[in-house]
C-alpha cells in the first residue's frame, strides 16, 4: 500500500508559486498523488503574508491570517512547497493576530499551524519516505534556504530526499549556510547589498559545476536565478519538488 | 576669526553618527571599497568558524544559553530592585555611585570627577558605553585628554577614525594601514613608533606597548565600562585580552566605571554562566586572557577612589517595549555581527552607530528613537536570514525584533498620511485578502506572460522599484497559466 | 527629581506589565549551578590548555617546587624578581641562592620601580582545567594586583588540589574571597591581542611570558 493512502492533503501552493512558478505546486501534486494521497486545493487560499509582515505592514497582513485559517482549518494535513512561507505561517500568524488584539484568531491560527507542514517534512515525517521514486540524472547542488533551516527547521530532510533520487550527482555547495541576499523586500530596499550577497552565492554555485541549483524556496531561486541568468552562467534553477516529481530521463522545462 | 585651539587628542572624523546617510546609501559606499570587503570577509569568516567550534565543545551549550536568557530576563523585569541592591552593596564597599539620565549628564559627572582630581588626561579601557555617550569629545572640550588603550581603539583614535565593530573596532584596517597610522601619528601624541616599524602584528603590538606604557605609569584617573555588576555583592567585572584593562583598573588612583543599567546579574554564582558564554561567543576562546573582578576599594591595592556611573540613556525606553526589551539581555559579545552576511559585506560604519550589525540594527533605533533617516532605515538592514538568532548567547530573537521595529517605522511614517509604499502595500494587502482577488491579478500576469511568451526572462526595467531588482538581476516572465487556473481546468476535466 | 529617582520611576513605569514582584518566582532559572565538567584527567587538561595559550608549564612534586621556580625564572630570562610577602620562604631562598636579585614590595614599590623589575613569583587561588585559567585573589602569596601586571614575566605556582574542572566549580570556590572583599584576577595564558587581522599576538601590556609551576 502506498504510504499516503487514505491521507487527505490540502495543498498550500503559496502566492508566488501560484502566480509565477506553477510547475512547483504541480510537481507537489504529482508526488503526493504518486504516494497515494488525495490532494485538494482550497481556492480561498492566498498567501502567508510575510511580504507584508516583514515590511512592517502588520495591519495589511492580518487578512492573510484569517484567510489561511478559513481555507485550511478543516484539513488534517496542510502542505506547502516553501520553508519560508510555511515558516511564516507557523512563526508569525499568531503574533499578527495578537498584535491586532484578536485572541480568537490567534488561537485558531495556533491550532491550524500544528497541521501545517513543509513538503519535505510531510514526506519524511508523516509519510515516512525518503525515496519517492524519482529519477534525475543530472549534476545538482542544493542551497538550504535560511527560512527553511532556521524558521521552518526542515533540517536535513531535503538532503535525505535528494540523496535517494536515482541518477542524481549531488555536488556540495560551499558556504551553503550563507544567506543568498534575497530577503523579500530587502532585495529592493537594499539592492546593492542584496546583489553583492547574491553574486557571491551565484559564484559558489558555479564553482560546484552543477547543471541545476535546487532549493525548497522559489523566492530565493528567483533572486539567485536572476543573477545566474544575467551572468549567462548556464545553470538552471529548479525547485526540490520538481526533481522529486521527475521519474524519467526527460529534462524538465 | 577665532583662534583654533590645538587638540589634546587626535580629532575624530567630522560629522556625527546621526548625520550619516540612511543604511542603503552608506552600504553602497562601503560595498565599493574592495579593501574593506576583503578585510571584513577574512575576519568574519575566521572568527565565525572558531566560535562555532568553541560553542560545540560545550556539551550543554543550549542549556547555558537558556540560563543566560533567563537570568537576564529576571534582571530586566525587576531592574529597580536589582539596581537598588547593587547600589547598596557598592556603596558599602566604598564606591561612590552616580546616576545619569542621559549622555550629557554622564559626561558632566565624569568631567567633574576628573577636574576635582586636577588631571589633564585620563586613560581608557575599551568600552562601548563611553563611545555611546561620546565621552572622549566631552573630555576634550573640558581640556582633558582621553587616551584609548585597547590596541584596536588606539588604531582607531590615532587614525582619526570611528570603530566599526564592537569587539575588533579596527576590523576594517589591515596591517599595512596600521603601520602607516602608527608611524604618522604616535610621535605627535607621545612615544613615537620605531623608525624601522614593520607591518608584522607582533611588532605593531610592541609599538603600542611602548607608546602606552608611559601613559599608564603616569595616569591619575582611568575610565572603564563594565561587563557585569553583581547586584548581590556590588562586584564589577571586566573581561579583556591585552592587559590594558588591568593597567587602567590597577595603576591610577581614581577609577570611574560607566555602566548601563541593564548590566546587572543577580548573584556572583550567575557569573559561572556568563563567563562561559561571553568569551566563547565573542573572541571564540575558552576564556579571555584576563578577567578582573573587584568589590569596592582594597586598601593598599589599586585605585582608592572608585566611582560607578549608572547610565540610562534610552535603556528605560527599550525596557518599556515588551517585545524590544529582550534586546537588553545583550552582553556585547559581537557573535551576531560576525555571523551576519550583511555586516560581512558592508562593515560597521554603514550602521551609523557605535552598535553595528544585527544587534545595532535593533538596539540603536530603540535607544535613540525612530526619528532620523538612519534610525528608520536600520530595522530594514537585514535579510532576516536568522543566523544571528542562532548564535546569540542570550537568545535575543533579533529577527522578530527587527520585524517588530519595521512595523513601528511603518506606523510612524503613515501616521498622518499614506506614503507611496504604504499605498502599494495596501494594494498587496487587498490582493492577498481573498482567493478571488489573487486570481484576478493572476489574469493580468498571465496576459503579460502571453505577450512575452517568446522569452523566459526579462532584463532591466526602467521603472521605480522594478529597476532596483532588474539593474543586476533578470526576472522570469510570468507563466500564461497560474496554478490556480491549471487546477480548475484539471478539476473540470475530472468531472 | 534626582536622576536616581527619575531612572527608578522610568523603570517602574516601563515594567508595569510585570505583576509578580518576586524575581525568583517571576522568572525561574532552570540552570543547575556548581556542576563539574566531566574530564578524564583534570591536571592533564589544565596542562594542555595552558600550552594552548602558548604559556609554559612544568609539573613537579612539592619537594621540587623551589628548584622549578628557579628554573622557570632562568627560562624566562629574569635577572630580578619581585616577591610578595607571603611567598614560601624556601622558594625565595633558592632564588637568591641562584643569584637572581630579589625585590620586596615593602614599602610598596612605585610604578616606575616595579616597571624596572623583570619578573614576579606568586602562588594562586583556584585554577580551571577546561579553560586553562588561573585565579588570583591577591592574598599575601600573590601580592597586590600591580605586582602581577607591570613586570614582563610571571612565574605562578599552582597546587594540584586547587585545580578544578571548569568555571562553575571555580566560581563556587571563589565566592569566599569575594565575600571577604578581595579583588580577583583571572589569567588565561599571557596577555594577548587579535586586533590586527585577527592574528593572535602574545603579549601586549600584561606580562608577556607566563610560566606555570604545577605542584602535584
Structure description:
The complex is a heterotrimer of chains A (253), B (495) and C (216). Chain A is an alpha/beta fold and 253 residues long. Chain A has two domains: 8-126; 139-245, Rossmann fold. Chain A is 49% helix and 11% strand. Chain A is globular, with a radius of gyration of 18 Å. Chain A starts with 7 loop residues before the first strand and ends in an 8-residue tail after the last helix. By secondary structure, chain B is of the alpha/beta class. Chain B is 51% helix and 11% strand. Chain B has helices at residues 23-31, 34-56, 61-77, 79-92, 103-116, 128-132, 135-141, 151-158, 175-189, 201-218, 244-250, 271-282, 315-319, 335-339, 341-346, 357-368, 373-377, 387-391, 398-413, 420-433, 435-451, 466-470, 483-494, and strands at residues 95-100, 121-124, 145-148, 221-224, 228-230, 235-240, 254-260, 264-265, 290-294, 305-311, 457-458, 475-476. In chain B, α16 (357-368) packs across α19. Chain C has a single domain, classed as NagB/RpiA/CoA transferase-like (Rossmann fold), CATH 3.40.50. Helices cover 30% and strands 22% of the residues of chain C. In chain C, strands 1-12-7-4-2-3 form a six-stranded parallel beta sheet, sandwiched between helices. At the B-C interface, α2, α3, α4, β1 and α8 of B face α1, α2, α6, α7 and β9 of C.
Radius of gyration of chain C: 21 Å
What's the tally of helices of chain C? 7
**pLDDT average of chain C, as an integer?**
96
Strand order of the largest sheet of chain C: 1-12-7-4-2-3
Summarize the helix and strand pattern of chain C as letters: HHHEHEHEHEEEEEHEEEE
Helix share bin of chain C: 25-40%
Tell me about the largest β-sheet of chain A. 4 strands, parallel
Task: Provide a count of the helices of chain A.
Answer: 13
List keywords for this structure.
heterotrimer; B: 495 residues; alpha/beta; Rossmann fold; 3 domains; six-stranded parallel beta sheet; four-stranded mixed beta sheet; 12 strands; 51% helix; C: 216 residues
